[in-house]
């Protein structure tokens, strides 16, 4: 595997930039209290979702978590429906019943995100079981954080995926922090999940801020899965630039060294890929300006759409409890 | 089998079932097995998983031989990882399959609570009706032979509390098969809580596929003096109690709700409006349980018809003890139901 194919580079960059700008817009408007739902922003981790999803087909599945915006957009989820859901509106992807942590877009293989830490891990494993039973060529990708890696269900799911050689790729986004608890306070060893035999589980630890590394790892894992060789595990080292939830000013002070944040800001996945593309002449300053403009318009439109959409009607409280 | 010393093989009582005495007389586990087998044969999406579903006893007989017939891809043993496996069933259902997950004891379902309560029961609602989770979880309450505190819990009260989860507790062979088929056909998460005492019975079951509607109770015996709502194997106990009470001139109307959620409130309320007296018998604990909820429903919606306080027959609020003298003191049955009926009949304002 030698990097990202030329023809895909621009699109990958665009998707990363779009996720960043969407997150920034949400962050800048959050204190207006029009998005009445806890947002967990993805700034700093864009290379993971985009690098992985750019190798997937539309009908491949992803399972996501509370920090869900990046996964949803990278898989091709509808932006307008997402912003409307953040406003808990009727035209939201979950009709205003889910909020920021519960995004879904089945048309692109996103079957719903769980905000119970680790909750999506067995569900993504089960989607892989369904794929194997149906005999299709699909892949199931599970995104989870280092907090979820503390949960016992991860071990249970890995074991079952290896036992049944399931077409599943576990993507650990190690952003170092679970709310205000550092990984060193929670995990006994840095590489605790990397010891399985390669025949059973292809495990990799990569720089999650380098989209090329993520793409290459995903390419290898997807190839293995489609060949029917079983599960993979990709740990992506990255960093949560903002706090656990909410906007910048809502991040409590004192639990982490500001120098640490600054160091990681210098490793920005979007800026570093942009630099490479400019150097390679894959991207011109004009392209960049055009992209920014297009994204801005798209975000404006999504917020206008969300604000215009009505709130779900009170009489629909009992709707959707059971599927008829 | 230790339970044979507690309850002998027998026929179901001669109460009303919808079988109309057609079919053959088969055992309770055979009835469940026949339903599962017919679902497997009908629909490629249906599969059976659970620890021990392929072992020689086949989950008390309910899954015996199914792996041989349908192969290890569709009927398979699982690791003892209830959280993950429940989530895996949820995921498989999202991937358009129809998992039927067998657990031998409700006690172990507590390990699956996160996926059952936080995920399966929420998914359809939380995503605004865009994705549904058709899974069936089956489990069986143990009793007797010193099963004790962690192998005999009747936890229906916990699950009854959760919106988004359908909860079934059958007691006849006919319903065990028909409700299993309804559960597999249903588009939602369905939990079937069975009881070991039902497994000793034989009843009339038609060979063909049929369903018993979820959410519909049934009157097992019509009567005019007092309504008894009994759950699971206590329906059988209550029926024998009613027969003995009839000899003393007390006419009991016996209701088997079959499904706890959705609960057939109308059937219970109509009966209470006729008799004015109500006894509720459940295999679970008293506090915050099934008898408490049904009492509340009746007090809220049929208060003016009540001629006496509602009597509740439920297990005392302690863990199940092992020793048989303590077990006997703990469990409830026919005699307790009779006492409760006398109490409500003899009540004087």
Distance between the termini of chain A: 48 Å
CATH fold field value of chain A: Rossmann fold
Radius of gyration of chain A over all CA atoms, rounded? 19 Å
Q: What is the overall pLDDT average of chain B?
A: 95
Note the beta-strand portion of chain A. Answer: 5-15%
In the CATH hierarchy, the architecture of chain A is 3-Layer(aba) Sandwich
The total tally of domains of chain B equals: 2
Helix segment tally of chain B: 13
Question: What is the makeup of the main sheet of chain B?
Answer: 7 strands, mixed
Can you describe this structure in just a few lines?
Chain A is of the alpha/beta class and 324 residues long. Chain A is 41% helix and 11% strand. With 349 residues, chain B is of the alpha/beta class.
Layout of helices and strands, plus pairs?
The complex is a heterodimer of chains A (324) and B (349).
Chain A: H1 6-29, H2 46-53, E1 61-64, H3 69-74, H4 79-86, E2 110-113, H5 120-134, E3 140-145, H6 152-163, E4 168-174, E5 177-178, E6 181-182, E7 202-207, H7 211-226, E8 232-237, H8 258-266, H9 269-279, H10 285-308
Parallel strand pairs in A: 1-2, 1-3, 3-4, 4-8, 7-8
Antiparallel strand pairs in A: 5-6
Helix pairs in contact in A: 1-2, 1-9, 1-10, 2-7, 4-10, 5-6
Chain B: E1 10-11, E2 24-27, H1 28-42, E3 46-49, H2 66-70, E4 75-76, H3 82-94, E5 98-102, H4 106-109, H5 113-120, H6 123-126, E6 136-141, H7 156-160, E7 166-168, H8 173-185, E8 190-195, E9 201-205, E10 218-221, E11 226-230, H9 234-247, E12 252-256, E13 259-261, H10 265-275, E14 278-285, H11 290-302, E15 311-315, H12 324-330, H13 334-345
Parallel strand pairs in B: 1-9, 3-4, 3-5, 5-6, 6-8, 7-8, 11-12, 11-14, 14-15
Antiparallel strand pairs in B: 2-9, 7-13, 10-12
Helix pairs in contact in B: 1-8, 3-5, 9-13, 10-11
């Amino acid at each position: 595997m030698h990097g990202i194919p030329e023809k895909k580079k621009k699109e990958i960059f665009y998707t990363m930039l779009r996720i960043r700008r969407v997150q920034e817009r949400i962050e800048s408007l959050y204190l207006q209290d029009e998005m009445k739902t806890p947002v967990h922003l993805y700034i700093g981790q864009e290379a993971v979702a985009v690098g992985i999803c750019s190798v997937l087909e539309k009908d491949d599945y992803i399972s996501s978590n509370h920090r869900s915006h990046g996964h949803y957009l990278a898989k091709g989820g509808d932006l307008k429906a997402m912003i409307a859901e953040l406003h808990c509106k009727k035209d939201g992807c979950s009709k205003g019943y889910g909020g920021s942590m519960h995004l879904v877009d089945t048309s692109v293989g996103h079957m719903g995100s769980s905000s119970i830490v680790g909750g999506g891990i067995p569900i993504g494993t089960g989607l892989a079981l369904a794929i194997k039973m149906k005999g299709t060529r699909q892949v199931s990708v599970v995104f989870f954080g280092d907090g979820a890696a503390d949960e016992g269900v991860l071990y249970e799911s890995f074991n079952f995926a290896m036992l049944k050689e399931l077409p599943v790729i576990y993507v650990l986004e190690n952003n170092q922090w679970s709310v205000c608890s550092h990984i060193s306070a929670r995990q006994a060893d840095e590489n605790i999940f990397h010891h399985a035999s390669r025949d059973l589980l292809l495990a990799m630890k990569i720089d999650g801020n380098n989209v090329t590394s993520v793409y290459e790892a995903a390419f290898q894992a997807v190839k293995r899965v489609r060949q029917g060789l079983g599960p993979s595990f990709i740990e992506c080292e990255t960093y949560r630039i903002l706090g656990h939830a909410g906007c910048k000013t809502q991040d409590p002070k004192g639990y982490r060294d500001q120098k640490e944040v600054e160091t990681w800001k210098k490793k920005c996945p979007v800026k570093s890929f942009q630099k490479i593309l400019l150097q390679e002449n894959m991207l011109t300053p004009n392209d960049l300006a055009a992209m920014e403009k297009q994204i801005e318009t798209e975000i404006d439109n999504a917020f206008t759409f969300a604000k215009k959409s009505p709130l779900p009607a009170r009489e629909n409280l009992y709707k959707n409890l059971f599927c008829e | 089998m230790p339970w044979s010393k507690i309850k002998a093989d027998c026929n179901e009582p001669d109460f009303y079932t919808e079988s109309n005495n057609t079919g053959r007389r088969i055992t309770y586990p055979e009835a469940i097995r026949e339903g599962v087998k017919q679902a497997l044969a009908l629909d490629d999406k249906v599969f059976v998983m659970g620890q021990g579903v392929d072992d020689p006893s086949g989950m008390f007989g309910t899954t015996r031989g199914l792996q041989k017939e349908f192969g290890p891809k569709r009927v398979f043993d699982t690791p003892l990882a209830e959280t993950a496996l429940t989530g895996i069933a949820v995921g498989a259902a999202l991937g358009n399959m129809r998992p039927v997950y067998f657990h031998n004891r409700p006690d172990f379902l507590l390990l699956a609570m996160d996926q059952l309560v936080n995920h399966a029961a929420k998914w359809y609602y939380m995503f605004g009706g865009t994705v549904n989770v058709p899974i069936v979880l089956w489990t069986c309450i143990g009793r007797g032979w010193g099963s004790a505190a962690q192998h005999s819990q009747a936890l229906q009260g916990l699950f009854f509390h959760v919106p988004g989860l359908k909860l079934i507790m059958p007691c006849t062979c006919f319903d065990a098969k028909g409700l299993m088929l309804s559960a597999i056909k249903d588009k939602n998460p369905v939990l079937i809580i069975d009881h070991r005492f039902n497994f000793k019975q034989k009843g009339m079951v038609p060979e063909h596929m049929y369903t018993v509607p979820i959410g519909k109770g049934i009157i097992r015996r019509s009567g005019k003096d007092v309504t008894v709502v009994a759950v699971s194997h206590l329906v059988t106990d209550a029926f024998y109690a009613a027969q003995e009470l009839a000899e003393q001139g007390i006419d009991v109307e016996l209701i088997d709700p079959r499904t706890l959620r959705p609960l057939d409130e109308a059937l219970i309320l109509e009966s209470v409006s006729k008799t004015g007296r109500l006894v509720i018998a459940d295999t679970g604990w008293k506090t915050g349980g099934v008898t408490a909820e049904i009492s509340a429903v009746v007090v809220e919606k049929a208060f003016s018809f009540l001629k006496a306080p509602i009597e509740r027959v439920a297990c005392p609020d302690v863990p199940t003890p092992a020793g048989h003298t303590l077990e006997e003191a703990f469990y409830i049955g026919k005699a307790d139901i009779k006492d409760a009926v006398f109490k409500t009949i003899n009540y004087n304002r």
